[in-house]
């Protein structure tokens, strides 16, 4: 029987190939949706695990996490600099690292921060050393720049018409190890240098410093009055640049008169401290969030999108199944003489049923296996593209529940293959030979 089936498939190879490709493409669509959604969840969750607590000014918690953890460019409101001083002196805090952004170089975001964050972000450096002067920088593992290279910061992005700062040129002192986060594509510089470049001196009056603070976070707040709006416009015209000394030593002792900040990354000493700090800084002008909790809300939205995509994939698979039924019915009609001859030579009806069923099930099973391979390859390609642009590593892999999906598809193939087999089973030899 097996030899007969293989011979039959070789003779009808064109039709068999069409059946396999139809099943493979329909299966690949559903598999790629499932794998890509899972890769996005795992990748973003692992990236958020690097940061225990994020504190920012009152506003959107989601945007705070996207900007500070995933480095997505977006204007953020500023919180008073005194928050940094309080956190640095809090016995519940292991370390607190301010971050300031808004500048870039060659498409890589420049993030102002501290040596503490640079040391703890990836563990030991892959090469070089941590920045120790205002004119030094540490780059992420995915930044394609050499040690010792020059970095000329640009306000904003090149495609947005940003203007290059002339106050300071950074020199690359070290490179971080891979973290699998958006920070692999970041350029880390001293926050002190960012403040000096944008003229954000701590001793300036609050009114004059307020609009300058907005510059370091890329923010133009609509909540200020006419005078502050004019000041923010002046900065966008690059009239409020300060001076920086590339050889100046770093001073990371934070005081209450520090410039305003868009976000602070906090490492609590214990889990209990983390919850207490979040509660303490969720009132007034600040908000404190666990990145994982914010991602849970995003996952809910992502889950709705996944259901829509899965429904689309299921609809495509249903159309393919209907097409296959039509093709097989026509195919059985064309093979009536062959089936009649087999019956005339004494082949029992059960053998005819088994031959037709095995042929069709074999083709559909190969299509399902090929579809899983194609879906995996498509998810790998898409995840690679997203990882290259975002810096977040997105692991693509099969899980235990995918075996259940394969089982469901094979069960469906078992039922689908029975339809042409039943049609062949019910044909009498005389009717088939007269056709």
TrEMBL record:
Name the major location: membrane
Q: Which UniProt keywords apply?
A: Cell membrane, Membrane, Transmembrane, Transmembrane helix
- Lineage, top-rank taxon, reads Bacteria
Every ABC3 transporter permease C-terminal domain range: 318-427
Report membrane topology.
Multi-pass membrane protein
| Localization (cell) | Cell membrane
The record's Gene Ontology cellular component field reads:
plasma membrane
Locate the region Disordered: 203-246
**This protein's name:** FtsX-like permease family protein
Lineage of producing organism: Bacteria, Pseudomonadati, Pseudomonadota, Alphaproteobacteria, Hyphomicrobiales
